[in-house]
Amino acid sequence: MRNLEHVKHVIIKIGSTSLCNEDGQLDKERILKLIQQIAVLKRKGLKVTLVSSGAISSGMGVLNLSEKPKEISKKQALAAIGQAHLMQIYEDLFSLFHLKCAQILLNHDDFDHRKRLMNLSYALSSILDYDVIPIINENDTLAVDEIKVGDNDTLSALLLPIVDAQLLVLVSDIDGLYDDNPHTNPMAKLLSDIELVDDEIMNYAKDSSSQFGTGGMVTKLRAAKIVNDYGGDMAIVNGNNETALIDLLEGKQIGTYFSGKAGRTLSARDHWIMYRSSPKGKVIVDDGACEALKTHTSLLPKGIKEVEGSFMQGSVIDVLSFKGQLIARGITNYSSDELKLIKDHHSNEIESILHYKDYDEVIHADNLVINKG
């Protein structure tokens, strides 16, 4: 048995495959069975935040479409049509258990700006204080790049610090993470408990198949790392198991459980820099700077060889090696135009080049998060 006594608030992310039948249409009976379990968790005193996919599938059902269109604009239209229908289903089914829900649509920009992030946190906190279940989805009607498999895995992971949840549960169409492809190897073993998402664990996702696919499991493992780095736990369970959520929260050995018991490795601010902000550009640094940064020193202009993108002072940017490896992410003290002038120069030369100098460092160590992945 797992000890989940520390879990007071759980985020449940439900993928389209757990909401739809084999024809890709929303299945109210399947949704009802999931809501029944959520109702049980609520009666046990747990706070629940729901992240739900399915808007595009819902729109396809409303219009009786058998195939998802390829055009982005049509996918966006389906998301707009389907989101209202999906929320109506949720409202009707939750009301059977005397539960209320609220809709929130997000884009990555909502995580990128600290003030908007705080407003989101306050709003979600108030919704939960009213004993209402927030139902959150990517705003696919306005998003372009975000309409792809696995987005809500990342979205739900980013929400964990915002709503102060202790556990993220990804409800999918597979029992969890296996050490080999279970579709082709009947001897593949389910990995029950994982303490660290390292390269070995990530490699287990490369040979996935079906619509769950390579990208699907990869994004789930990345979500686990995001959650674990904040000290939270994550689990993958099979939505076809009609008691999966209840069994998991009762501590039974079900699915794959990613423990964050090693403790929070990133502060709230560092977690925002590394995961919840959207980098506005990048700098390429030499090997010497790469090694120095691993000891958590500041980034100086001398180590920068190339500058890519257009960004302002105060933006979050990526620091890459010549091989394209992400070394760190941090808040820059200089704009991209300024960095193009002072790169490969010593700090004592900044003033003579720019005719002013606010900082010796391009990114101070306090504003720099080293990538340990």
UniProtKB/TrEMBL annotation:
One of its GO terms (cellular component) is cytosol. NCBIfam families: proB. SMART domains: PUA. The keyword Transferase applies. This is Glutamate 5-kinase. Its EC number is 2.7.2.11. Pfam families: AA_kinase, PUA. Pathway: Amino-acid biosynthesis; L-proline biosynthesis; L-glutamate 5-semialdehyde from L-glutamate: step 1/2. It catalyses: L-glutamate + ATP = L-glutamyl 5-phosphate + ADP. Catalyzes the transfer of a phosphate group to glutamate to form L-glutamate 5-phosphate. GO terms for molecular function: ATP binding; glutamate 5-kinase activity; RNA binding. It is found in: Cytoplasm. Keywords: Amino-acid biosynthesis, ATP-binding, Cytoplasm, Kinase, Nucleotide-binding, Proline biosynthesis, Transferase. Belongs to the glutamate 5-kinase family.
